[in-house]
């Protein structure tokens, strides 16, 4: 229970009653809604239901989802000067018991009704106290990462704008909730890591106008099918850094509101003012609710964890006056205008009623306001409502209806959920930086290698020429030395020869001249030219000469071998060069791989986003009829997606890819030889086709034709499923529906259905045909080409998702048919009956799955509206279903329609009479 009281409950108590905090805490638990007053207070039953629900869901489902009821405070405006005079003799129409959190609404002098609220703020409550009781807990939640809403509801002049928008220029104590909330926000956020931005809008007659840029007067509302978040991509978003600029912004907005209303000739009391404060905070450390393994990926062995951001939104809504407006046109409005002016507010009332009663269908899509506030009521936001009332007994009626609105809102339960996500964008930025670093490093290394190689080649060249030079030099020297030696030896030999000759000549003379026997004895025994010693000497010299020659030869050999050595060294250098080149190539290879890996990561990112969408859809389906969207849009894919800059990273990357690669390129990949590429491409196209803004471009570029061709040419079920899903999305649009038909789409879809194994494929095909069924112009062709039979053929697969789409198709078809019959362009019995759909329709009219049941109930009503179908319907047992619908259909409009048909059809009346069933 304590999780249900505002954390600031005690601070209000302190503000009001000093030391009474403990006492009031006791009261608040004593009079908590679950133990509410038994008398007259209608709320008591529903509140105990709420408390039951709370006990099962009150504890958090996971760390970030908690069930929390919408909190409602009531604030009474003091009597104004006019009331002081005019009502002087009368008591206020209400009596407040703030300490009991009760309000008594006087019925007459002796009787009153008592109501209980989360906070009862008297005419004396200060603005500070109102802020702390109503808005502060919501602001604190928003700062923690939850969405939050603060809204004021009440009759014009009861103080909504006073409570929310007051600027407190004369007296700062008068500052309203908007200013005080921004003060708290700015005090909490860090200017470096967090971002606060604001848009300010006015909603009037179902048109959203930008109060920060008045030329922007038709802003569209976009819903993110994944998160269900709504956004206004066209609205001006101003970053807020300080309090002063915010105040100026509010003043500017107020001025524009005044100007716009003057131009449109309206009062501001007829328009809704909506302030949206977007807060983006990065989550540091471990206090993230996203588990640590989730979403991390590896790049070359390194774990990269995307940073986590919390993107929450505070919405402050100053609603139009809740008083009923005069539809007679006395205010200068036509009846149409009057309806339109009222539309959003009455739609809000209907949604709150439906949520309070736990009804299966909440008509969120009926108005812009309810679409904008879909997260605030029954969504994931923490919501606080202040209802403002005046004291005057003359407005008792309006005061009472305001109180009843507040009472119903107190029964609305939200599942508050932390708005946290991985910041894929900044991860991608980080990856890009890392890649750039690697590329630069690689380039640097490559340059260094190149330089080193050049240096070594130069050095080798230098050494080779040095060696060659010294070799030539040595050779020349040796040659010269040899020549010199040779010349010298020859000279020497000649001299010796001369000497010998002279000696020899002298001896002869001696021999010839003297008779002296001694000389004869000593010299004349053998008369030779050389003495034997001299010959030996010459021989020796010759030997020497030969040796010298050999040494020279050896030297030459040595030099030659040195040359060879150098050549070998050069070869080794060349080998090294080759090795380095190879390393360079490896390096380049590595780079290519790295780039491939990045590409793969990007495609994984795409895949993740696609699968996230898919699982989101499964989740939507798992929730069955409880999601408000299941009635209006059975294909969650068609919900428009939010693509603003601060949107989630995955989608942004799809868009980025789309921009980079180009649609034509993506479409051409649909015909790729590679099956993986084909699957991938069709997933990307499907993802793109899920966004309304892309659909026209895809069809223009021939994407629809390519998708249809793919149904024919591919045998892969995944391709079939995804392509059929994309076609179903494109088939939301009338022009595309005609295109699909003219390109033989029906027979392709029927063929795909016949081959399909997976119910999800059938669901997509059935969804596509169901969309075609809703086109008035295509009725005859659709039937002729077997569309109706193909749809009915799919009921063999009993999967509820498929059946829901079939039922939707049948309802669409029956609706168009009924329209054609009423306009006289069709005669004869319903084609659906002719084609044998009736037995299945009757069998499933009370199907326990509400989407199936509701569509069939509608289809039955359409069929029954035409007397010509009545006989077959009676024979087929459809009459009993109509009777059941007229009694217990959860939708009042269908119930009434069935009853009206039963009463007005002569055939049905006759049959009921025959069976003695009283249905007069
Ligand atoms: P609404 O926005 O609901 O039409 P306003 O906020 O414009 O109502 O209030 C109508 C008038 O009543 C204004 O003059 C405002 O100053 C005054 N007023 C409203 N609430 C209070 C309050 N709590 N105390 C004093 N004056 C108030
Ligand atoms: Mg106002």
Automatic annotation (TrEMBL):
* SUPFAM superfamilies associated with the record: ARM repeat, P-loop containing nucleoside triphosphate hydrolases
**Localisation:** Cytoplasm, Cytoskeleton
Q: Which regions does the record annotate with the repeat ARM?
A: 661-703, 702-745
A GO molecular function term, named singly, is: ATP binding
In terms of superkingdom, the source organism counts as Eukaryota
Does DNA-binding show up as a keyword for this record? no
Q: Could you list the residue ranges forming a coiled coil in this record?
A: 428-459, 542-611
Chain ranges of the Kinesin motor domain? 69-412
UniProtKB keywords: ATP-binding, Coiled coil, Cytoplasm, Cytoskeleton, Microtubule, Motor protein, Nucleotide-binding, Repeat
Q: Where is the composition biased (Polar residues)?
A: 1-11
SMART domains assigned: ARM, KISc
Q: Where is the composition biased (Low complexity)?
A: 29-59
> Where, by residue number, does ATP bind?
154-161
Quaternary organization: Interacts (via C-terminus) with NEK5.
Which family does the similarity line name? Answer: Belongs to the TRAFAC class myosin-kinesin ATPase superfamily. Kinesin family. Ungrouped subfamily.
| Protein's name in the database | Kinesin-like protein
Protein source organism: Sesamum radiatum (Black benniseed)
Lineage of the source organism?
Eukaryota, Viridiplantae, Streptophyta, Embryophyta, Tracheophyta
